[in-house]
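Notes from the pairing session

We agreed to fold both candidates in a single pass and log them together. This is the raw record for the first candidate, unedited. Please don't reformat it; downstream parsing expects exactly this layout.

Candidate A
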Amino acid sequence: MDATSHAVGEAVTGENAAAASGGTAGATAGATATAPRFADAGFPWYGLDDAWTGRRWFGTVGTSPDGRVVDYGSLGHGDEPVRSYLAQDPSEGRRFAVVVTVAGRTARRLDDGTGMLEATSIASAAWLAGSGLLAATEHAPMERTLRQDWLDQQTTLAWDLADDIDGPAWSSLTLPVNGTPQAFRYRESEYGWVLAGDAPGVHLGAYGRGVSAYGLGFTTVTDLASYEQ
């Protein structure tokens, strides 16, 4: 994908691997581990607007290969997905919506001169959101190798779909960002929904299950403390 840096791809693949190993991410542990890096970002974070009255929590943060610069991160709303082998009917599972903020970056050289990072785009946000939804998806118990094979297959599909974000697999959806209507690209699957679009200085992605995307609104997060729950 020419719009998504290898650094971003590697970070998400690592998260999928953790999901495949049957690990369960607790809300408190996630907040403790990632909250400090949210404050280090040189771009605004976005979450759901005040119409969302439910629980808010810190998701993951992705950095440049040297760990110095925050490149993207996610803020969760509702139930934190359980990542395990437990059987789950998506219609009966946990209800959540996760907003992914990706810094708007042009192509740039790594500080150590060892390579280049590609520019970010809406496709970057779509890829991260699609991979996040996969990592939050449970199935009936299966052998670990089969689970990893499924993740690899679906991750490749998510990559291809994000790279063709203007293609027929996506539809158009308009949602408010800081009160202003903004065009997004949207798709549904048996696992949930994914959307991606732009906001000032950043690219936005989101994914969820059990929560309708059609009634959501996004806003700049001015108080990260609201996610320390």
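Candidate B (folded immediately after A)
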Amino acid sequence: MTIATSSRMTLEQYLSYDDGTDARYELVNGVLVEMGAENPINTTIASFLFSIFLGMGIPYYCLAIGHQLQVESAYASARQPDLIVHTESSEAAISTDKVLRLEQPNPQLVVEIVSNSVNDQKSRSRDYEEKVQEYAARGIAEYWIVDPDRALVRVCRLVDDVYTFEDFQAEQVIVSQAFPSLGLTAEQVLKAGR
């Protein structure tokens, strides 16, 4: 749903916008667009991955749910991934602002958990097409698309400014260049450790 405003918003206005609800928005060409409701499994998967990375020795302050990344595209001005694994540099940069700006260091990993990829074409296009272009253009080395409906984890690795894709399903162990000792299967991620 698009929210009507009297004028187009700047990125700074968007970052300080609060309508007093729990609604999540993205800024598209200066216009607020409400994001659909999250599937409950999405937050459970993000929390599970948070705990896994924490257990691998990633400092808690480098793990983020709710941080904003500035992107440059026709679709949005900023994105809010389901989970970000920051580098020390990207965490330091975002700790002084509400968004990780284009000119600031990139995080180590961005994870998006698709909400209803089977029936919601917008959700699927957003995570599988729009964000792939945006995160590659930004230079994020690794991007995961976790898709509970399609029962897969897609790992996107940046090679020569574009992502290459590798899909993992069922008992396949996820191969991550950012975290080579991860040792998680797709099923463990998709079932959030259950």
